[in-house]
């Protein structure tokens, strides 16, 4: 150390004093502390610490004393763990301040930190539509246009942020319900009778269907969803991010088939390919079922399901791997025992391994349709083992998925409660 006098140096961290020799600071494991060794002036020292006492050669750090005590345990023993009853992110901020990284933590604490940081990033992505913490994405108070856009963005994105947002969400839910009722009613025999007509009659029916009540209701619903999607796109701050969001992609998938079917009807006319086009039109109309997923904007349960699947994709992949490995093993053994060996009784349902895969799936999931079943004694024993293995293998990742689901539900519920409090303040004002 080129600044200060005395054989020792005192670090005062949050009221707790630590004494070190000058030579120890040169290669100290904490980067901020080791920087004191190269300080040449008092100004350099104050860039590293908060205050300095020249007479006692004491350096003051206004930081968490208990957290620094655990960091000192790492310096002495080489093991760094979280402080009990302290937020993981707060302790991580202390680590960053003193020059440590997440890799210095023990493995168990690293996993806790990764999970907490993942949750926090998701929380801020949903909670901070301005693009970051307070102050980074805000517009100046004088920018009335920015305030108006932000208010519109909140109205369309957060159903509980204001009275207008709740009214808009209610209307949107009603349109989704009406469209689903019309879709279900269109599959009734009375509604499907015109589809059995000839090509010429089908052409006239397709041209006139838009003028029927169901066609009018469908057009009104599509018009509402299209207008809502366009307005949300206009008021969005980041257009590229808007297009990449899952719920917006679902909106496009729900709206696009209607316009494609209308264009196909207009351009096909009485062409001889109308029958093939009619099948395509029915497929496109059935894609309106995606409108049900639009309810995820207004219901916490569907949002929780999507967020859980996003966070637990590793567990889901692990579950699929378990099923695929077990399916490969049990399907090969069942085909061998039921049809591959010349035992006098061959089960034709197990003629091939791909055919036996269906039996393995319905057995491991304990569905048991009964369309396929082993008839030999070894095959029945194998079937029992398959069922028990399915219960065990499927239950292993379920615990992690369940805990993640509960955690996601509480986070989204807290977020909804926060916007509800702002709604109550709006009523009071």
TrEMBL record:
The chain crosses the membrane at residues 163-188, 215-235, 247-269, 289-309, 316-337, 349-369, 381-405. One of its GO terms (cellular component) is cytoplasm. GO terms for biological process: action potential; protein homooligomerization; regulation of potassium ion transport. Keywords: Cell membrane, Cytoplasm, Ion channel, Ion transport, Membrane, Potassium, Potassium channel, Potassium transport, Transmembrane, Transmembrane helix, Transport, Voltage-gated channel. Pfam families: BTB_2 (PF02214), Ion_trans (PF00520). It is found in: Cell membrane; Cytoplasm. CDD domains: BTB_POZ_KCNG3. The keyword Ion transport applies. GO terms for molecular function: delayed rectifier potassium channel activity; potassium channel regulator activity. SUPFAM superfamilies: POZ domain, Voltage-gated potassium channels. The keyword Disulfide bond does not apply. Residues 7-116 form the BTB domain. It is a multi-pass membrane protein. PANTHER family: POTASSIUM VOLTAGE-GATED CHANNEL SUBFAMILY G MEMBER 3, VOLTAGE-GATED POTASSIUM CHANNEL. Belongs to the potassium channel family. G (TC 1.A.1.2) subfamily. Kv6.3/KCNG3 sub-subfamily. Heterotetramer with KCNB1. Does not form homomultimers. This is Voltage-gated potassium channel regulatory subunit KCNG3. The gene is Kcng3.
């Amino acid at each position: 150390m080129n600044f200060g006098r005395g054989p020792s140096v005192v670090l005062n961290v949050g009221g707790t004093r630590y004494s070190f020799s000058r030579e120890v600071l040169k290669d100290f494991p904490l980067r901020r502390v080791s920087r004191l060794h190269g300080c040449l002036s008092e100004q350099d020292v104050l860039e590293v610490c908060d205050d300095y006492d020249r007479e006692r050669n004491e350096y003051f750090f206004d930081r968490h004393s208990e957290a620094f005590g655990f960091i000192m345990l790492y310096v002495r023993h080489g093991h760094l763990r979280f402080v009990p009853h302290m937020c993981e992110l707060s302790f991580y901020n202390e680590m960053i301040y003193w020059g440590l990284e997440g890799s210095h933590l023990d493995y168990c604490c690293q996993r806790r930190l990764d999970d907490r940081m993942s949750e926090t990033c998701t929380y801020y992505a949903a909670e901070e539509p301005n693009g970051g913490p307070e102050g980074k994405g805000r517009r100046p108070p004088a920018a009335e246009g920015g305030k108006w856009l932000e208010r519109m963005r909140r109205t369309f994105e957060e159903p509980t942020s204001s009275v207008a947002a709740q009214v808009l969400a209610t209307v949107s839910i009603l349109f989704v319900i009406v469209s689903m009722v019309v879709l279900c009613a269109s599959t009734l025999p009375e509604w499907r009778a015109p589809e059995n007509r000839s090509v010429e009659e089908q052409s006239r029916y397709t041209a006139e269907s838009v003028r029927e009540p169901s066609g009018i209701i469908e057009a009104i619903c599509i018009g509402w969803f299209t207008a809502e999607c366009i307005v949300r796109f206009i008021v969005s701050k980041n257009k590229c991010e808007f297009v990449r969001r899952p719920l917006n992609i679902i909106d496009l998938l729900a709206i696009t088939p209607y316009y494609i079917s209308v264009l196909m009807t207009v351009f096909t006319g009485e062409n001889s390919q109308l029958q093939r086009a009619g099948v395509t039109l029915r497929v496109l109309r059935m894609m309106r079922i995606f409108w049900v997923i639009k309810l995820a904007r207004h219901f916490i349960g569907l949002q929780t399901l999507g967020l859980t699947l996003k966070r637990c994709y590793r567990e889901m992949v692990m579950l699929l791997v378990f099923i695929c490995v077990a399916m490969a093993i049990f399907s090969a053994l069942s085909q061998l025992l039921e049809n591959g060996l010349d035992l006098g009784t061959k089960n034709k349902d197990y003629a091939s391994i791909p055919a036996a895969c269906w039996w393995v799936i319905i057995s491991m999931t304990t569905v048991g349709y009964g369309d396929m079943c082993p008839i030999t004694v070894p095959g029945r024993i194998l079937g029992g083992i398959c069922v028990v293995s399915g219960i065990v293998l499927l239950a292993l990742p379920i615990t992690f998925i369940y805990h993640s689901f509960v955690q996601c539900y509480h986070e989204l519920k807290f977020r909804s409660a926060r916007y509800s409090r702002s709604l109550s303040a709006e009523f009071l004002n």
